[in-house]
Task: inverse folding
């Protein structure tokens, strides 16, 4: 079944120059391994195509049940140079939560997601 | 030596809720009030103010705040640590001293001044000696924008703040200091942590990271169950209850709104994060993958287990430089076909700009209400949208071209698609762009100055 990240995680995003960072946090620790498996850097890069023009890096924080993504070349130059409404990347968090991942039915059931 | 201290954050950024620091002082017991006044471009504004008036160049808001809270701080022995000094720490301290005298507090307030961060006058010397101050993001050498530089400051850490506190300062005023240092400083001062006690220094740094954005860790901008977060109108700003062993609790005053819980703290921990294993400050390198959190009762989260590593031999430098001009024009198109109308207007506008032969570097069109924040992820805009704001931004070095662009927005109302409004504010304003240039400098080039004055 397909599950949208907004149903299983929350997020916060910010900026460092032209790079947006998105921290993705599992609502429950049991769901974190699913995020690690499904929400890869490549998947996030594909999700943000047309928005993120550079590489996507991913870091794991199992202690917080969280992943941190760096989306390079995403903010129109960044800071005061950027002409974007969201020059600070504040809404990249909710943009990531739109992503849908495929979860096998039995796994979704075991995790209480189905 | 105290076993536990309470450090309250009063400003998450320059321009945060003006009453928040007052409520931190009045709302319950605290030992320290930490205030961050410096955004990345703030220093360039302050350099300009100082060029016009040698007594200016610091955060004026801090002076009016001190008028309000200094008597209570003296009475309750609350120490204030603020990077309000901008590019004129001495001017700021003199103004605070005057406030103290006016309030009849002469002889009761010691002010600590931390200087040495302002390196604007030393840039040519650095460049001449082969310290290139390359842009950390792009790799370009600073010489490429030398003539446009407006301010240059090294980020100082906790050490000079500790020195000022050790010398008895009640109010510590810094220029460019790290937000985290403003929180870590009191812990080192109170608990006597060693300069190589990396785990505890990392813990204090992470406490600083959590509270440095004010209410963003206590219910503000919190996605997790945001609808149920109580009384944000009266949101409580965060307080770090730090213990000598390097553990701490994040909480807020009783009777305030907002919420401190595991999700609110986690959201703030990942904010503006790079590589979580290496959060670099002048004081240490903190490892965010070692942070342990535990629920400690209502509006209390305990933080422990933090590990750190030795500090690097560099300091970050924040340079601001003039980078041309920009202007943003907006109009609002209404149903039906609001998006199609806004799009047609953009095409008309661009054809006119082409015809004028203006010189600019970049033009960006966004459709607020349709896809300005999420781009193609928002899907195709519905023809039933109630309204769409057309937002066109232009950037370039030729001020005249940007000025000319600002005259092309309003005419679209009578010469473009119908159902348009939203031009109450007059022509868009042309803004000078002051851009940010992050760089590194060898630590031994920067010597912080600390003095304590009585008033």
Result:
């Amino acid at each position: 079944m397909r599950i949208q990240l907004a149903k299983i995680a929350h997020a916060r995003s910010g900026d460092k120059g032209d790079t947006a960072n998105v921290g993705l946090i599992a609502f429950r620790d049991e769901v974190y391994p699913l995020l690690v498996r499904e929400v890869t850097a490549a998947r996030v890069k594909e999700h943000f195509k047309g928005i993120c023009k550079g590489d996507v890096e991913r870091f794991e924080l199992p202690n917080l049940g969280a992943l941190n993504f760096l989306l390079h070349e995403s903010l129109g130059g960044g800071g005061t140079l950027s002409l974007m409404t969201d020059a600070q990347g504040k809404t990249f968090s909710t943009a990531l939560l739109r992503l849908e991942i495929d979860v096998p039915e039995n796994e979704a059931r075991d995790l209480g997601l189905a | 030596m105290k076993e536990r201290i309470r450090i309250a954050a009063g400003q998450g950024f320059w321009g945060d809720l003006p009453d928040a620091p007052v409520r931190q002082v009045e709302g319950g017991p605290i030992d320290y009030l930490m205030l961050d006044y410096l955004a990345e471009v703030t220093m360039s504004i302050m350099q300009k103010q100082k060029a016009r008036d040698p007594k200016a160049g610091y955060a004026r808001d801090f002076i009016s705040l001190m008028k309000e809270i200094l008597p209570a701080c003296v009475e309750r022995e609350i120490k204030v640590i603020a990077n309000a000094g901008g590019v004129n720490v001495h001017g700021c301290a003199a103004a605070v001293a005057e406030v103290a005298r006016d309030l009849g507090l002469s002889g009761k307030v010691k002010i600590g001044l931390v200087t040495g961060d302002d390196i604007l006058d030393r840039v040519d010397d650095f460049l001449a000696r082969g310290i290139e101050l390359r842009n950390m993001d792009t790799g370009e050498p600073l010489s490429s924008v030398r003539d446009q530089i407006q301010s240059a400051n090294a980020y100082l850490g906790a050490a000079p703040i500790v020195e000022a506190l050790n010398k008895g300062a009640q109010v510590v005023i810094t220029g460019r200091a790290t937000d985290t240092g403003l929180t870590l400083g009191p812990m080192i001062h109170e608990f006597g942590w060693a300069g190589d006690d990396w785990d505890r220094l990392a813990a204090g740094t992470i406490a600083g990271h959590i509270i440095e954005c004010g209410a963003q860790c206590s219910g503000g901008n919190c996605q997790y169950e945001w609808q149920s977060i109580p009384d944000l109108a009266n949101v409580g700003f965060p307080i770090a209850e730090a213990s000598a062993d390097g553990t701490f609790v994040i909480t807020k005053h009783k009777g305030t709104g907002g919420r401190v819980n595991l999700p609110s703290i986690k959201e703030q921990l990942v904010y503006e994060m790079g590589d979580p294993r290496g959060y670099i400050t002048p004081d240490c390198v903190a490892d965010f993958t070692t942070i342990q959190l535990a629920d400690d009762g209502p509006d209390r989260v305990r933080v422990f287990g933090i590990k750190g590593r030795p500090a690097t031999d560099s300091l970050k430098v924040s340079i601001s430089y003039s980078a041309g001009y920009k202007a943003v024009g907006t109009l609002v198109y209404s149903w039906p076909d609001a998006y199609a109308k806004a799009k047609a207007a953009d095409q008309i506008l661009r054809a006119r700009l082409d015809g004028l032969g203006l010189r600019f570097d970049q033009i960006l069109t966004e459709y607020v209400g349709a896809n300005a924040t999420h781009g193609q992820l928002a899907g195709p805009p519905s023809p039933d949208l109630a309204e769409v704001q057309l937002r066109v931004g232009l950037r370039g070095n030729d001020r005249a071209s940007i000025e000319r662009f600002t005259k092309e927005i309003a005419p679209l109302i009578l010469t473009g698609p119908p159902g348009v409004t939203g031009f109450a504010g007059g022509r868009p304003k042309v803004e000078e762009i002051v851009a940010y240039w992050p760089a590194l400098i060898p630590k031994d080039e920067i010597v912080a100055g600390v003095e304590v004055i009585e008033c």
Observations:
- Residues 285 and 309 of chain B are 5 Å apart (CA to CA).
- The mean pLDDT of chain B is 96.
